[in-house]
Amino acid sequence: MDQFVINLIFVGASFALYIGIAIWARAGSTSEFYAAGRGVHPITNGMATAADWMSAASFISMAGLIAFVGYDNSSFLMGWTGGYVLLALLLAPYLRKFGKFTVSEFIGDRFYSPTARLVAVIALLVASLTYVIGQMTGVGVAFGRFLEVDNTTGLLIGACVVFAYAVFGGMKGVTYTQVAQYVVLILAYTIPAIFISLQLTGNPIPGLGLFGEHQASGEPLLAKLDQIVTELGFREYTAHHGDTFNMVLFTLSLMIGTAGLPHVIMRFFTVPKVADARWSAGWALVFIALLYLTAPAVGAMARLNITELMWPEGTSGQAVSVEQIETDPAYDWMATWQQTGLLGWEDKNGDGRIQYYNDADADMQAKAEENGWAGNELTNFNRDILVLANPEIANLPGWVIGLVAAGGLAAALSTAAGLLLAISSAVSHDLIKGQFNPGISEKGELLSARIAMALAIAVATYLGLNPPGFAAQTVALAFGLAAASIFPALMMGIFTKVNNKGAVAGMLAGLVVTLIYIFLHKGWFFIPDTNSFTDADPLLGTIRSTSFGAVGAMINFAVAFTVSKMTDPIPTEIEELVESVRVPKGAAAAAADH
Amino acid sequence: MSDNANSNAYWKANLRLIIISLIIWALVSFGFGILLRPMLSGIAVGGTDLGFWFAQQGSILVFLALIFFYAWRMNKLDAEHGVGEE
């Protein structure tokens, strides 16, 4: 059967499943729409959180980033999992006890200030919207590739699907849809990895195979990889090359960003009890870890496979010939991906072979001169195609390729839906009901939530069609903003007696300084060429704009404490609120009287 | 013990647990995974060193253990101090 037909069957069947679940679980009351009636089991909730969390960036992009950079990009692995420790210990149980629907509601009540709530809503909207734009771009690319349509058509189809289940299903539809998406996504990620790990190391668990023995050479896999890439002039895979301080800050920014992103925090409002909120974070990380423990193995093994395909006789022998790429079925994937424009090669010196090496390396330049090479001939290898192309590179059966197609789409769609829900509740619940029209009926609130969601999809689709040009940086911006604004406010709300003025000043300072630092490096409002600095040579020492979220968070804390010290202490009833949030007793009542 | 003193003791115990957990959290990721990696380079693990293993596998496994340990310990603490639900 044609691969295109197999892909269609897998993608079609998985979609039918998600939409079926969304229709079956259509939400009724407002409480159900936002928080699924608080009847979600911790394991179910953990799976849904995992699907929500693991976006196109985790599924499609991360292993590729690790594959081509090596150890230095471990920040993604530690950062995007370590945030769950902060969530579980510092936020989730207390926010569940507080018993309201949204993050900004907590900030508004705890800091007894509509201004605080408004600032929080703005921070949430900015972070969520930038994040969802990146996701919609991912939806477009993935749909385009697997349905073999152009990017625009792919994005429009994807937007309709997200709209259908997010708008009509609400959180409940999304929760159970996301459980299904998680299952599709994790199977799609791990099955090819298990096949490849078995091929290379004989170990069925990729995370163990990564530190196992490369069977063909009898050497440890990572030692073999280090050797083969350095022989081609690339940097040693397992060694640390970048700046240590920046790596620490970047990891920290991703961690606090994780614990400050509204669509993840909101999940913990949907469990029945405070104890369940603690377990939920653990279960979420179990399901996330299945992918994150596999990703570094996927990256390293794919890098080894690709390098060996380009040098079938070993790095000291002849490079692969153009004829072999065109005729050998093991190289079919190259032709497939060449059509997308994301993979390219060119026989520059006309010797009928494709030499893949680092032509910026001095030793390799000498070797190239000796052998008559005219530069690296694998001219384009987009990092984002690595995971999707991986099963084809390893020559796995057609159904595995179809499964990966369905998984990539599940990853992109589920996160987009979760973010859209966070946006819609911020607008209808916090902005309209909380600020402008407190007397709005339940029906009116539900309607405005759906209108907000439709508008957000329209905006995200439009910006996804005309992306600012850098999806990865947009995602980093979302993390930095959440880290600098929301996380510190939530933490101070629970653990300290910081007052209203302190919180507002802190959030504004963190948000604004982080935004300015990012704009200085990426261009004002992301308009190209309006930047004064670049990430290669940042304004402050070695701190890149993607790592600045952690600094923004520290500014937030410092400003909040200083301002709070200089102004009136919090009133008695807020002191009582803080005390009550700290103990689980009475959580059911807190939820009921809302 | 009065209600107030009881919830103070509960909160103190919770904070202690959080601080210990976060020290471990930072040690395995920022410590073993990044800053202390050069010091651990003598310990070989599958073709590389222990720091690399912590950065790509170990820290995630420790994070998992930490969250479940905290949940288990806190649920016990809730019961001991009579501040749990039900």
Describe this entry's structure for a reader.
Chain A folds into two domains: 3-282 and 396-592, Sodium/glucose cotransporter; 305-392, no CATH class. Helices cover 71% and strands 2% of the residues of chain A. Chain A has 24 helices and six strands. A two-stranded antiparallel ribbon of chain A has the order 1-2. A two-stranded antiparallel ribbon of chain A has the order 3-5. A two-stranded antiparallel sheet of chain A has the order 4-6. In chain A, a hairpin with a 4-residue loop joins strand 1 (213-214) and strand 2 (219-220). With 86 residues, chain B is mostly helical. In chain B, 74% of the residues lie in helices and 5% in strands. In chain B, helix 1 runs antiparallel to helix 2 (50-80). Chain B is elongated and about 55 Å long. Chain B starts with a helix and ends in a 6-residue tail after the last helix. The mean pLDDT of chain B is 87. Classes of the chains: A mainly alpha (594), B mainly alpha (86). At the A-B interface, helix 5, strand 2, helix 10, helix 11 and helix 13 of A face helix 1, strand 2 and helix 2 of B.
Attribute tags:
heterodimer, A: 594 residues, mainly alpha, Sodium/glucose cotransporter, 2 domains, two-stranded antiparallel ribbon, 2% strand, B: 86 residues, two-stranded antiparallel sheet, 2 helices, 2 strands
